[in-house]
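Comment on both lines for my students:
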Amino acid sequence: MVKLPAFKPEHYPLLIPVGKKQWHVVFYDKLLGGDLGYCCQDSKVIGISRDQPPEEMMNTFIHEMLHAVEFEMGIVVGHPKIRKIEAVLGPIFLKMLSVTTAR
């Protein structure tokens, strides 16, 4: 796993295009019930808990972003596949972003 202590919520986009819609990304100190993230189709909001390591935060961001894609495209990927995809993409995104944030 890629260790990036300098990668913080400030490095994430706060507005992301998903299909033809704009989704807001909001960070919270903690989420109820110990959840790490959520995706709300109605308000077009992805919520992420700051209370997790950088690697897990990236996986959570990807996980919730994939739910937004499901909603906007009208498809169902499902949690087992989403977890597999986030596990592959998380380290790749962290590696790419560590280069851009180090500049």
About this structure: The longest strand covers residues 21-28. The chain has a mean pLDDT of 88. The domain at 12-101 is CATH 3.30.2010 (Zincin-like).
